[in-house]
# Entry
Amino acid sequence: MPKTPDSSRRSEHSRQAILAATRALISEVGYEKVAIEAIAARAGVGKQTIYRWWPSKGAVIFDSILALSEDADGRDLALPDTGDLEADLKRVMRATVAEFADPDFEKPIRALTAEVINDAGLAAQYRDKLARPVDEAKKARLRGGQRAGQLAADADLDLVLEVLYAPLFQRWLQRSGPLTPEYADALVEAALRAFRPG
Amino acid sequence: MPKTPDSSRRSEHSRQAILAATRALISEVGYEKVAIEAIAARAGVGKQTIYRWWPSKGAVIFDSILALSEDADGRDLALPDTGDLEADLKRVMRATVAEFADPDFEKPIRALTAEVINDAGLAAQYRDKLARPVDEAKKARLRGGQRAGQLAADADLDLVLEVLYAPLFQRWLQRSGPLTPEYADALVEAALRAFRPG
# Structure
C-alpha cells in the first residue's frame, strides 16, 4: 500500500460513493425527497464536494444512473444472437420486463425519466449517452434478423424499436397494466408481425 | 340580472378561473415554477380558496387538465367511423400527433405526465378519469373494425392501443424523433399489420 495518498484515486472513490448514495436514497425515499445534504452525509463527503462536480441534483441523479449503464457496457451491450430473432428478442424483452417490475431497479430510472421529461437539455444528454448506444446494439441484432430474412429488409429500425419497447415503457411509466413474461412475448410477436418480410 | 349574488355560480366561476390560470402558468413558466401564489393572483382569488378545494399543487394541475377533457367529452369522445378503419385511425392519429407537436397543448400534458410518473395515487386517478374513458371510445371503434374484418377478431385491444399510441407517447415524452403526419400514418400501418385478420 502506498503511503502517499493518491488524490485522483480518492476523488474517484468519493465520486463512486456519491453516485451509490444517490441511487440508494432515490430507492429509499423517492426522487423528490432526495436532498444534496443527505447524499453528502451518506457518501461521507462535504456538500461542497458535490457542488464542485455537479451543477444540480438532476445532474447527480443522471450520472448515478449512467454509471450503472457504464458498468453494464464494460461487460456487454450486444444482444444475444442464436440466429433465431424471435427467440433472442423474447429472451431480452423478458429480462427487460422483469427489471422494470423490480422496485429496486425501476425507482432510479423512474426518477431520471421524470427529470428528462421536464428538461430538454437533459433529454438530449440522455439520448446521446444512454439511449443511443443501447439502441444501436439492438439495431445491430435487428440487422442480423433482416439478413436472415426474419424481418423486412426495408423496415424502419427506429420504428421497430418503438413498436417493441414503447408499449412496455408506457405501461411501466403509467402503471397501466401487468409486466409479465407473457406480455414480453406478446410485444415481440406483434412487432415481428408488423415488420414481417414481404 | 339577479341582485342576490349566486354563491354557487360565483364558486364555479372562481374554480374555472383557477383552472385556466393554472394551465396558462404551466405553459408560460413550466410546471416546476408554478406557485399556488401565482395561480391565486392570476385567478383573482385568495390562496386559501385554492387550498380549500385542492390538497396540493399536483391536484390543481390534474384538475386543470381534466377540465380540458371534460369540455371535449361534452362534445364527442367517439372516433370517426366511415367504415374504413385505416383511414379513420390515420385521421385521428394525425390530429393527435399535431396536438403533441403544439407547445401550447403539450406543455400542461407534459407537466401532468411528470406528476403521474412519480405519484402512484395520481396515476390511478389519471387512469380512471382520463385514460380509461378515452381508451374505451377508441376500443369501440376498433371493435367496429373487427366486425368489418379489418382487424383480427381475437386481437387484444389493450395491446393494439399500446402498439398504436405508445410509440408516439414515448417519442413525444423523450423528444426522440419528429412528430409528423407521415409518422402518424406509419404507426397506423404497423399496428394494422401486427393485428391483421387471420
